[in-house]
Structures are given as structure tokens and as C-alpha cells.
Amino acid sequence: MKKKHSTLLKILLALFVLNFIFLYLYLSSSGHRNHQHLEKNHRDTTAENFPGIISHPGPHLSKPWPIIPSYLPWSLNPSVVLKSCEAYFGNGFTRVADILSAKPAVGSGSSWFRCHYSGTLRSSICEAGKIRMDPEKIKMSRGGEKLEDVIGRGEEEELPEFEDGAFEVEGERGARLKRKKLVGKEFLDEFLPVGGVLRHTMRELVRSIVVVGDNDFTCQEWVEEPTLLVTRYEYANLFHTVTDWYSAYVSSRVTGLPNRPHLVFVDGHCKTQLEKTWKALFSSLRYAKNLSGPICFRHAIFSPLGYETPLFKGLTEKINCHGASAHDLWQSPDDQKTARLSEFGEMIRAAFAFPVNRHHADKAVSGHNVLFVRREDYLAHPRHKGKVESRLSNEQEVFDSLQRWASNHLECKVTLVNGLFAHMTMKEQVQAIQDPSVIIGAHGAGLTHIVSATPNTVILEIISSFFRRPHFQLIAQWKGLEYHAINLEGSYANPEVVIDRLNKIMRSLGC
């Protein structure tokens, strides 16, 4: 009996092994045939041009959106009130113009192009499907170089000039169409007005788009996942870069992207430290001129210029908005309140894997940190001399006085943090913003980091009479942060006045 069981077990084991071998041979053969078919019919551009992007139908390697407390839906609401807070900071892009409609009957997909226009911001977010970019028809420097390699290069060399056909979309199939412009001046004036921008590169990009017949629309290289095309101007300045980050973020949300898009810089600027935040916020980053040749995008989104965001427009027009919690706005919508900047600040923190649910109570457990944001000399861009303009002539004296004050503060423990941002990585800078109860500093781009400050952080800005602009007062207002200012006569600050103001703030915090 035992012998029969042993024989039967051996037979079953032999059948299992044979079945496994046949299955392995079949799958190997099938996979090899499929691989040959893909190689023959499609050139994968992942390795040579877009690390991390793989061709359809493979799995997505784009980063998912993080879960953030201040997020509110971005779905289109045609009834958004003109010049309301949502119209300025959220999805006020309520007018949609379909210039080239997709043709669902076409099996391989057809080109399409549309723009979402905001009457409040007077700008558009445009997007396209099946669009071809030819970097050879974009005149600009290569971009992405080390700063020290391009010292002295002129700004005009770094900004793009587009020849007709720098971008192409496919027209009617089955016919050899005469090449023609996708849009004319009338459309550009209506949907992409120049406004106060002297050189509107995104308008010029759209102007360059040409419609060609299907026989003339050829693509050897494809990017299958959504890609943002961005042109930057003041790329080495933190404030202006934050306006670009915000524009890119809003563009991604308005167009309903399921994951964070990839980026292509359509400019010829060199690398800066700020590039690290671009990479943290989005899925990947390349420069247009670094690509090996013409490339096609299944879905391209054209981000408006940073000058067209409320962060910049608020400097010259009144934007009557105040920060509020997303929870309160979800329950009681208010046209005069917004949580969008808090949402964006949380997006920056999440991009660097910092907590997004910290509040003031967490900070004060072991005392209070006071962050003093310093202005330092550093080389910013090829035309920069390495010297920053002083906004506080006795900054070191003020810092030393605050250091002594903090050391002798008996009511509670106060730690003064020396914010030498020019010598810190972007991740270290964002981290430094998370902990303080109070952020103090002279008017300067470094204070733009308050956009990612945690709730209940107090801002104290020291303002020279030579640089009285409302950048940081407005950011604090739009985020719902408590803000104080010391307005100077000239650029000298009496340390005792600064200490007195800081003492009052600390008492309000129970210290």
C-alpha cells in the first residue's frame, strides 16, 4: 500500500514538473515575440531622454499626489465668481476653447488642443494631445549647465525664440494638408494677451504651432505620460520661482492630471539650487535642448508664466482674500477666503517628505524657535556679481542682540535659529521653516519660504524705506498667518525696537 502511494506521488510530481517546464517555454516564447514586436514598432525613449518615464501600456512611474489636509477639489465650476478668491488662487479657468478636437474614431489617437481661460487672471492654461516638439526650431542656449561654465552669458541667449513649426499637431487624416498655423492673432489676443509681460514666451510658443497632415506628422520618440512645458524668467530668485511652482501646480490640477506630471524646461537657463524643489514637486525634469531630437507628447500642458499668477499680480492689483482652513471653507464657502496657498505650502512640505499636519501646539512643547532669515552674498546667475543688496545695514548687530536676548529670556525657552539659507540645501531650507513659532527677517526673497510655513507661525518683517513692497504681507494674509512689520527710516534697525516687538509677540504666544 505504501509502495503504491509512493509511486502515485512520484507520478504527480513528474507531471507538475513537466507542466511547469511547458508553461515556462510558452511564456518565454510569447514574451520574446512581444518584445520583438515592440522593438520593431516603437522606440522606447526612456533610457536616453526621460529617466523614469516608460511607454504605454506599462505601469505609471510618475509620482502620486500626496494626501494633504488643505486640499479642496479642483473640478471645474462655471459659476465661480469673477475676482473671487477661488477665481484668483484656484480653478477660475472657466472658459474653455477647443481649437482642435480629438477624433474618437481614429484608432491610434488624434491630435487635440484646448485652452482654459481665466477672466480674473487674464491668462490661459493650454493643453494638447499628440503634439510634436522640434528643439532645433527653438533658438536658445542649451540649458542645464553648471553656473560656473556660463558666467557672463546674456539673458537674451537663455530665453526661447520659436520658429514656425517648433510645435506641430496633426490635422485631418487621409489627406495631405497644406501646413497652416493652429491659431491666429485674434485668438492669441483673446486667450493669451501680452498684458504687462514684455516678452510673452508662452504666447509665442502657441503662435508657433503648425497643423500638418497625417503623412507629415511623424514621431520616432514618444513620451506617454502627461508633461508640463515651462518657461522661466527670473529662475534664480526664490520669490519668482515660487510663482512658477504655483503656476505649474495649478496647471496640473486644473487639467485634472491623475499623478504629478513630468517637466520640460523650454528655456536655456543654467542649473540652480532651486531646481531641486522642481524635482521634488514633480515626477522628472529635462531641458528641451538636452533632448536628442524631435519628440512627441501624448499629453502636454503649457503652464502660464509666473507673472500671471496671483502671487505676482497681487503686487499691483488689490486681491482681497484672507487665508482660512479647508475644513471651514468646505462647510461654508466664502468668496473672500482661500485655503489654496496653504494647500500649495503643504504640497512643498510633502514633496520633501515633511509632515503636513503640524500645528503651533507641536512646536511649543519644549520651547519656541525664532528663525532669523539672513541675507548673504552668493552667485545667483551668469550675470550676477555675487553680492546681494543689503536691506538691513546692521543685520549682524540685530542678530547678535537677539541672540543675547534669547539666551537671557527667562519666561520660557527661546532658541534663535540662524537662517543662513544661501549655505543650505532646499530641503534644509524648507525644514527650517517647519519648526519656528516666529520667522523674522529683512525684506528679501528668502522670506518667500513662509508659503510653506505651518499654521499659527507669526511673521515679523523688517522693512527698509528703500524696499517697501507687500510681497510677504500678502503671502501671510493669503495663508492666514499673523503678520507684523517694522518700517525703518533708511536701512538701519534699532535692535531694542526689534527686541521690544519680538517680546510682545512672544507674550501673545504665552511666553
Describe the fold and architecture.
This protein is of the alpha/beta class and 511 residues long. It has 16 helices and 20 strands. The chain has helices spanning 2-41, 46-49, 85-89, 155-158, 185-191, 201-207, 238-254, 275-281, 310-313, 326-331, 340-351, 360-363, 395-407, 426-434, 471-479, 495-508; strands at 95-100, 112-118, 123-133, 138-139, 161-162, 167-170, 180-181, 209-212, 222-223, 227-230, 262-265, 285-287, 295-302, 322-323, 337-338, 368-373, 414-419, 438-442, 458-463, 482-487. Strands 1, 2, 3, 6, 7, 8, 9, 10, 11, 12 and 13 form an 11-stranded mixed β-sheet that branches. The protein has a 5-stranded parallel β-sheet with strand order 17-16-18-19-20, sandwiched between helices. The model is unreliable at 20-59 (pLDDT under 50).
Which descriptor suits the 3D outline? globular
Provide the helix percentage.
25-40%
- What fraction strand? 15-25%
Number of separate strands:
20
Total helices: the number is: 16
* Helix/strand/pairing category: alpha/beta
Whole-number average pLDDT? 86
Distance separating the two termini: 87 Å
Radius of gyration: 28 Å
The biggest beta sheet, please?
11 strands, mixed
Stretches with pLDDT under 50, minimum 5 residues: 20-59
Draw up the topology in text.
Layout: H1 2-41, H2 46-49, H3 85-89, E1 95-100, E2 112-118, E3 123-133, E4 138-139, H4 155-158, E5 161-162, E6 167-170, E7 180-181, H5 185-191, H6 201-207, E8 209-212, E9 222-223, E10 227-230, H7 238-254, E11 262-265, H8 275-281, E12 285-287, E13 295-302, H9 310-313, E14 322-323, H10 326-331, E15 337-338, H11 340-351, H12 360-363, E16 368-373, H13 395-407, E17 414-419, H14 426-434, E18 438-442, E19 458-463, H15 471-479, E20 482-487, H16 495-508
Parallel strand pairs: 6-8, 9-13, 10-11, 10-13, 11-12, 14-15, 16-17, 16-18, 18-19, 19-20
Antiparallel strand pairs: 1-2, 2-3, 3-6, 3-13, 4-5, 7-8
Helix pairs in contact: 13-16
